[in-house]
Amino acid sequence: MEWWRNKKKKQNLERGAKLLVELIECCDGKSNPIKFFSAPQIRKATNNFSKSNQVSELYKFYNKWYSGKNENHPMILIRKSLDLFYGYQEGNLCCDIAISSMVSGQKNFLKLVGCCFEFEDPVMVYNGVRKHDQLHHIISRQPWKRRMMIAEDIATALAYLHTAFPRPFVYRHMWPENVLLVEDGVAKMNDFSYCVSISKGETFVKVYRNY
């Protein structure tokens, strides 16, 4: 078991180093506080990832979502990447965490609480909401006035990425599954795995051509 503990420790250090690089490159070293949860804390919050805690309406084929709570947060949402897509997630996990920490104060993004590097599959923790559903599940049942409000929320979120930081960010992952509707009808985006910043001299067209 000693070799396994050493492997996990090395993995945690490597992920931490990658996250630090992303925070420096994307955020100029500045971000909202990111809490690092231990594996026992995550297991306790989700009743060991029990089926009763699984949020079925947020299911994606490469992510599972769980509701939970801990001593500091009465409601949290936990996103666990699936093993099948581990290679993809590993390369983009730290970008997702870094940018999520930057946009957490804007109302049209899920607020990041922290993450856990101790599982083989990456785990991210968000502030919970009382009601949530993916946009593609219910958009057809919404009146046109409500659809326009949702579109405005999404446009506001994208505009925030483009204008709120010294280097604009391009989302590049605009799928209905990445937009949640919460109890007050507000649309909230998440998953910045493919998000990239535009350096000086680059254009939006160039970024999309490299995608």
Describe this structure in words.
This protein has 211 residues and is α+β, with helices and mostly antiparallel strands. The chain has a single domain, classed as Transferase(Phosphotransferase) domain 1 (Transferase(Phosphotransferase), domain 1, Orthogonal Bundle). It is 38% helix and 18% strand. The protein is built from 6 helices and 10 strands. It has helices spanning 2-27, 39-45, 86-103, 135-138, 144-163, 204-209; strands spanning 35-36, 63-68, 76-81, 112-116, 123-127, 132-134, 169-170, 179-182, 187-189, 196-197. The strands form 3 sheets. The protein has a 5-stranded mixed beta sheet with strand order 1-4-5-3-2, with helices on both faces. A 3-stranded antiparallel beta sheet has the order 6-8-9. A hairpin with a 7-residue loop joins β2 and β3 (76-81). The radius of gyration is 17 Å and the shape is globular. The N and C termini lie far apart (41 Å). The model has no long low-confidence stretch (mean pLDDT 79).
Query: Can you identify the CATH class?
Result: Mainly Alpha
E-strand count: 10
What percentage of the residues does DSSP assign to strands (E)?
Answer: 15-25%
Uncertain regions spanning at least 5 consecutive residues: none
Mind telling me the CATH superfamily name? Transferase(Phosphotransferase) domain 1
Order of helices and strands: HEHEEHEEEHHEEEEH
Shape: globular
Order of strands side by side in the largest beta sheet? 1-4-5-3-2
- What is the CATH third-level topology name? Transferase(Phosphotransferase), domain 1
**N- and C-termini, Cα separation:** 41 Å
Total domains: 1
